[in-house]
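Example 3.
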Amino acid sequence: MKSLAELAAIREKALKEISLRQSNDGYKIIVGMATCGIAAGARPVMNSFVEELKKRNLTNATVSMTGCVGVCRLEPMVEVIAPDGEKTTYVKMSPEMVEKIVVEHIVNGKPVKEYTIGNADN
Amino acid sequence: MRDISLHLMDIIQNSITANSNRIVTTISTDNEKDFLYISIKDNGKGMSKEFLENVIDPFTTSRTTRKVGLGIPLFKESAERAEGFLSIESELGKGTLVSVSYKISHIDRLPLGDIAQTFSQLVMASPEIEFELKMNNGSDSIQINTVEIQDTLGEVPITNFEVIEWINNYITESIKCIFGGVLDEILS
Ligand SMILES: Nc1ncnc2c1ncn2[C@@H]1O[C@H](COP(=O)(O)OP(=O)(O)OP(=O)(O)O)[C@@H](O)[C@H]1O
Ligand SMILES: [Mg+2]
């Protein structure tokens, strides 16, 4: 069984790493988690973002969710807010699309146009 | 919704939207009665009596002007399909308690789903909220509380990826430990 002792060990380790600062001045990735979003598969999408950030040791982004109602037919929807405030809305997301967004947008600062709202095939 | 953990995510999202900062979820089973009980209690803004009636059963209202939500009616429907119930108690300014039950052996009972993922994602997204999860099978119980975890962590943020993973694994093991074995089929 997992124990709190393990948690203390994680703490020690994390304190040694510089990557501790999960900055608030980085990218904000916000996954829509209202009923429609969840039903359309928002959860695995959020999971993929966390996995990708972890895999690449990226600390310039935080992942969160919102319960605000989005547009049902465009769910799962994800909003990425850049440090300069620029907002990009990705629609009809799937876990497979996440890697590209992380690499091109979060790492290289270029939004993935083809996944955005203007380009969704309705 | 495919499983109970997704409904939970949805219902807890309501609590977050209602500005709660403490959300307590209880999952318990009564083997003899063959029932699974789930409750979500928050300290958010609550609802008036009149509003609540509309929320629980939007189809009985004569009002057509109001946009009705889907989350609660869908959860209710899933419980009723398995001989269970959904009820809500709420008080303006105090908070809300959503209680749901399912007959465990009912063929239409939804699987529990990945409760651990529901919670680890919620903690990741809203680290400022105190989440508590209690699991109880009538004789044993395990609980996890994010404020206690944060106390252990000190200055390390609870959103640290390894911590989130630990929370995920801890809950996964707890669920197996409490509801596995005798109640294995609850995990299916
Ligand atoms: N825990 C809560 N505290 C306060 N108000 C709540 C709570 N849960 C639900 N409500 C109120 O009930 C309404 C209906 O909730 P419901 O989950 O059914 O739909 P919704 O959240 O509006 O939309 P969605 O279909 O995306 O879930 C909410 O809009 C909110 O006003
Ligand atoms: Mg809702």
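The longest helix of chain A spans residues 42-55. Residues A 34-35, 69; B 10, 14-15, 18, 42, 44-47, 55, 69-73, 96 surround adenosine-5'-triphosphate (ligand 1) (CB under 6 Å).
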